[in-house]
Amino acid sequence: MDRIFTLIATRIASAAGQPMTFVAALGVIIIWGVTGPVFGYSDTWQLIINTGTTIVTFLMVFLIQNSQNRDAAAMQAKLDELIRAIGPAREHFIGIEHRSANEVEAIRAALEKEVEDGDGKAATTSDSVEHVLRRF
To answer: Which of 19, 45, 86, 106 has the fewest CB atoms found within 10 Å of its own CB?
Structure first.
């Protein structure tokens, strides 16, 4: 199920981002607008576009979120591998994306302060994320 959904989500997200998809959607809107006088701008005429756009928007939110989640996880894995591969990098930063937003913001602020206070290097590579958080 997961593989099928991923395949479908990837293909639809890719197709949705194409210029021709935009042109097609614009075409639907233009056709709908032009048919307004034919249907006397009736409630049914308005309901058709409202219902259609609501359904498409509702489904696209889930597909786009799935694509963004996979992209973010892949990027995080790549960054974690870079941190792990670079000798002097602080490996304690691997996995900080699982911390709360406040903790990540405190870490970011502490790192920026380190850069302002000196050469941007930690005193030792054993300075952990917890140590950075305790300072603030």
So the answer is: 19
